[in-house]
Amino acid sequence: MITNATSQSPAPVANDIRDIKPPIEIPNGWAWLWWLLAILAVIVAAILIWRWWQSRKLNVVLPPPIPAHVRAKQKLEEALALISQPKPFVIAVSDAVRAYLEERFQFRAPEWTTEEFLRELGETDLLAGEQKESLGGFLESCDLVKFAKYEPRETELRELHGAAVKLVEETAPVEVQSSETKVQSQEST
Hints:
Layout: H1 5-8, H2 31-58, H3 68-79, H4 86-105, H5 114-122, H6 129-147, H7 154-171, H8 174-188
Helix pairs in contact: 3-4, 3-7, 4-6, 4-7, 5-6, 6-7
């Protein structure tokens, strides 16, 4: 038997040539610098945007706080809507006066009874003697309605309201009183 010598012999050399490898990229010494600069630019931009956002939030203009005497007068005016109901009216008026005194003079007494409140206030020089007596009578009249179920007439309720307004006006800061007096005198002329 004759064997085919060509089948056992290696393939021709021309078929064994492999393709050329692609060129190898030689790293540029400056490429890392460009990446670093790009990362720094992103960080700086993020910081600038964050600062701008924070300053924008801080620039929100808050309205000036309403002075204590103005807020008390507003509460007293709102209480007039309740004048046909003595107990809610008296509670609203006395709460407005207590809140005013606490805020105006930093005299903290939210949970005190009338007696405790007047005793502590009597030991201070926040109010004049006449004002302390007027406040004492006012609070005792309020307590009669709140706790003793006294039913005052509308004229008595209006007198209580007037006493509260008078106390607020008398104890308002001096510069406020003088500017209100000027405004009132200009309106009357």
